[in-house]
Amino acid sequence: MTLRVGIVGGSGYTGGELLRLLIAHPNAEVTQITSREGAGQYVYTRHPHLRGASKLTFIHPDALEACDLLFLALPHGVAAREIDRYAALAPAIIDLSADFRLNDLAAYQKWYGDAHPAPAWLDRFVYGLPEVRRDQLRGAHYASGVGCNATAVNLAILPLARAGLIERVSAALSVGSSEGGNQPNDGSHHPIRSGAVRTYKPANHRHTAEINMISGVRVDFSVTAIEMVRGVHVVAHVYLSQPVTEKELWKLYRGAYRDEPFIRLVSASTGLHRYPEPRIVAGTNYCDVGFAVDEDDPRHIVVIAALDNLMKGAAGSAVQCLNLMHGFDERAGLNFTGIYP
After folding, report:
1. Staple 207 to which of 149, 188, 232, 296, CB 3.0 to 4.6 Å?
2. pLDDT digits (tens, 9 = 90+) for 276-320
C-alpha cells in the first residue's frame, strides 16, 4: 500500500522536513506540495538539499486535489479556519500547527488569545505524541502536531510524573533560531542574533498548556534563544516527594522508555557526551534524556533532554503519527541516525 500524500505549506522548514522524510518512506509518496509564493517553482529552490531527490514543483493552495492524507504545515490559526475544506480532500489529516493540540476551549483561548475557529473539530484530533497517545493514534483519521518545547519537557519528566513523584519543576530551555520559522524578523537578523543569548520568554510560554495536559504537572520554564539553528535543550530541576537513588532513576526511566524506538537514555559518569546534546540529535527523530541526582538533596534531581525542534518536535513526530495511523512500521522513513562530528 502506498499513500498519496499532500503537504500544505511546503515552503517552510517543517514542510521541507516532511518532504525529506517522505521521499525515503517505503509506504508514502508525496504527490503535491503547496506554496503561495513558490507556485510553479521546483521544491529544491526553497529546499536546496533536496536537489536531485525530488522533481516536484510547488502548486498554489487553490489547486490542491484529493489524496489519501494531508499534512498541514501552516501558520497557527490558518488550518482551523479551513479544516472543512481540507477534510473534504483527504480522509486523514495531520496538522502541525497548534490549532488542534489542546482539548479544552478555555485553555486554547487563554493561551492563544482568540476563540477557537472550529471548536467542533477539537475532539476529533488525537494529540500527536506517540509516546503518550500510541493506542489512540492507531487507526485515527486526525492527529495534531506537538509543540517542540512541550515535547522536550514532557519526555524529560513523564516517567516521574506517571510515578506521582513530582512536587515542583523549574526548567530552562535553550533553543535554536529555526523555532522562529523561515520568515525573517528583528530577532533573527544575523548581526542581532549572532553571539546572542537572549531570553525571550521568561514565563507563561504557550507550551505550558500542553505540558500540563500531557504530564498533569505545572512546569515553570523559561526559553532562551542561543546561537544554534536546530534544537531544544532542557535542563529541568525536579523536586520530588521522596528521595531517589540513581539506580532507582535508571529503573524508572528504563521501564518507561525501554520499548520506545526514538527515546535514548544518555546519562554517563564519564565521557565528553555523557548528557544529551542537541547537536547529536540534529536531523533525527530521537529525543535523548539524561539525569543526575543532587548528592546533597536526593529529592532534587536534574533531568536533561535534547531534540531537534524540526524533527521530533514537528515533522518527525508527524511522520511517526502517519505510520501509526496506517499500520506501518513506526520507524518507517525515520531511520536517519544523524551525523558526527
Report:
1. 149
2. 999 999 999 999 999 999 999 999 999 999 999 999 999 999 999
